[in-house]
Design a protein that fits this description.
The chain contains 4 helices and 10 strands. By secondary structure, the protein is α+β, with helices and mostly antiparallel strands.
Amino acid sequence: MHARLAVMVLISAGLARAAVAAETCHSLERQFGKTRTCASSVLAPQGERTHGPNHLIIGEDGAWCEGSAGPGIGQSVTIHMQPRPRFRTISIINGYARTDETFGRNGRVKRAYIEAEGGYKTAITLKDTREPQRFRIPTSRALWIKFTIAGIYPGTSGSDTCLTWLSVDHEELNN
């Protein structure tokens, strides 16, 4: 019994390392500085459509979709920012919001953990809607903020969970 448990722990550790090694990042420089958005996993391209973290910050006609086996619980996106901005609002568009059909087909985030440099951590509940949602946190200056999926609204086909937009509001406190 202990040997089986030890094997399961070793396999789990190997999978955890594989997920970290598979992290995909996208960098962008804007008026408020540099942003690097990293996803713990990314769904493989489907035809010409890609699902990387670049979709979360440039507002294209796509979405980040996690690429894990299963519903994506534990998958995350980390936004790294330089210089350290002041912010208090996180903006999110849940699911693959391109059309009603893509929204319904893919999983959406129901609950998530938000963490920021300096030890801040909270759980949020997202609405099952294509409309933008804003979440206030205590005013912060942080080099990074992390969004981790904790629960989902399942889609009608497949087990992919997606987000169309995830950002901190740089303009609210820095103008």
